[in-house]
């Protein structure tokens, strides 16, 4: 991760003014690196459940960047970028209810940019499942079919979602083990630790983000990053699975 961050900074990308793929791709990649840094801080402090929940954000970034990169990249990047207008105008609808007498701060330009979006929370107009499971236009699986990250969506995205919302699944380390016998304490920690699985899948999905990012930029993945992948994953399997 440290090398990936240094490589990005040292490349000196200067996003063109009117090409959205560069601004969006760089922003999402930077966010992914930062999320992994935060995950590692939480793991180091033994907040493993919380780190696992944050893993969902990383997977979400991967699905988003992969979808943008997969086809119609510039159009999809522009749609993603301009969603700020939809988010803004939706918030402004709440102004009269919470700040009576205050006028919403909308401009004709913002209202125009917001018009194409039919859903207040979906920049693409599609559910996350559609973004995640769109067949890849470049990568193929072992059978030669377009790659689809089904495991990332059906397993990891679904499981980490329990630690974001949260559901009862996320309370393993917070429940009284023997009700009627044991007293309650905050985070007794008798459940399983998620540190190993979090570290492993954080590395895996950061690498997926890296691949999508360089496709978005139209650049080859730096050779050293490619060379590091195989020994890194071998180490992660031996250490964390």
What does the model show?
The protein has 241 residues and is mainly α. It has one domain (2-71, 127-240). The chain has helices at 2-11, 20-44, 48-70, 73-92, 95-98, 108-114, 128-132, 150-161, 195-217, 223-240. The protein is globular and about 65 Å long. The mean pLDDT is 90.
Describe the biggest sheet?
Answer: none
What is the overall silhouette?
globular
Q: What's the structural domain tally?
A: 1
Radius of gyration: 21 Å
End-to-end gap = 20 Å
Instruction: Label the structural class.
Output: mainly alpha
Number of DSSP helical runs = 10
Nearest-integer average pLDDT: 90
Percent strand = under 5%
Helix content: 55-70%
Low-confidence stretches: none
Number of strands: 0
How would you summarize what this structure contains?
The chain has 241 residues and is an all-alpha fold.
Structural topology:
Layout: H1 2-11, H2 20-44, H3 48-70, H4 73-92, H5 95-98, H6 108-114, H7 128-132, H8 150-161, H9 195-217, H10 223-240
Helix pairs in contact: 2-3, 2-4, 2-9, 3-4, 3-8, 3-9, 4-6, 9-10
What keywords describe this structure?
single chain, 241 residues, mainly alpha, 10 helices, 61% helix, 0% strand, globular
